[in-house]
Amino acid sequence: MYSIAFIFKPGNYDEEFYTLDKQIEQFAESLPGFLGKERWQSPDGKMINSTYYWEDQEAIKTFSSHPKHIEAKRQYTKWYDGYHIVVSKVERSYGDGALSHITSNI
Can you list the residues of the chain whose pLDDT is less than 70? Predict the structure, then answer.
């Protein structure tokens, strides 16, 4: 299992952003190998972390090479004031069992 954390500072969104964002999200969710997502926002609301979970690198490659995703990446400066991506291999996950999580089954 892999996680891709997309950490970003939101800028100004327009209709094109919302359209692309919805198309990209739908594509991700339709892919075999997509396991789920979660989103976190900093307390001051200035930073957002959208983390996507994937079964394998093949699924990640399929997602990242989608034409709409490539189009959005080319135009990111229109909508974001900065971003950072962290790709991680999830080796284990644990807790007390009181919270369900995407990684609970590894």
Answer: none
Cα gap 34→36, rounded to integer Å? 6
Counted domains in the chain: 1
Helices (H), the chain: 15-30, 57-64, 67-74
**Structural domain includes residue 69:** yes
**CATH code of the domain containing 24:** 3.30.70.100
**How confident is the model at residue 97, as a pLDDT?**
86
C-alpha–C-alpha distance, residues 36 and 104, integer Å: 12
pTM higher than 0.85: yes
The per-residue pLDDT for 106 is 76
Give the pLDDT score at 104.
Answer: 85
CA torsion, points 72, 37, 40, 13, in degrees to nearest 10?
20
Q: Which residues of 66-81 are buried (b: 16+ CB within 10 A; e: fewer)?
A: eeebeebeeeeeebbe
